[in-house]
Amino acid sequence: MPFFSLEADTLGGLRVSGAISYANAARALEQMPHPVHGAEAMAIDLGALQGADSATLAVFIAWSAAAHRAGTSLRYLRAPQGLCNLAKLCEVDGLLGLG
């Protein structure tokens, strides 16, 4: 199973490292970030994300939807170009703030 990690960074945001794929997407969904109550947005640094496929995109859509239900939003920072391209192709780049 590919390595995946979601950790807090020193600035109060989160950092994703490794790969989110079909093999570990369920585990990534279980580790969904829980936004701080009343926070307007939470930043997630994707600079260490290794590759991206439709499972990766689906996980980030689910995370964003959960944040929206909680009254906040997620901002994905430093997304790999492959993820940006896939999100644009699927017309969800604006939803994820990648566009």
Structure described in brief:
The chain is α/β, with parallel strands linked by helices. Helix content is 35%, strand content 24%.
Total count of helical runs of at least 4 residues: 4
Question: What is the radius of gyration?
Answer: 12 Å
Apparent shape: globular
CATH topology: Transcription Regulator spoIIAA
Low-confidence stretches: none
Helix content: 25-40%
Strand order of the largest sheet: 1-2-3-4
Major sheet summary line: 4 strands, mixed
Mean pLDDT: 89
Query: What name goes with the CATH superfamily?
Result: STAS domain
Any guess at the CATH architecture? 2-Layer Sandwich
Describe the protein's topology.
Blueprint: E1 4-8, E2 14-18, H1 25-30, E3 41-49, H2 54-69, E4 73-77, H3 81-89, H4 93-96
Parallel strand pairs: 2-3, 3-4
Antiparallel strand pairs: 1-2
Name its key features.
99 residues; alpha/beta; Transcription Regulator spoIIAA; four-stranded mixed β-sheet
Characterize the structure shown.
The chain has 99 residues and is an alpha/beta fold. The chain has one domain: 2-Layer Sandwich (Transcription Regulator spoIIAA), CATH 3.30.750. Helix content is 35%, strand content 24%. The chain has a four-stranded mixed sheet with strand order 1-2-3-4, with helices on one face. Strand 2, helix 1 and strand 3 form a beta-alpha-beta unit. The protein is globular, with a radius of gyration of 12 Å. The N and C termini lie far apart (30 Å).
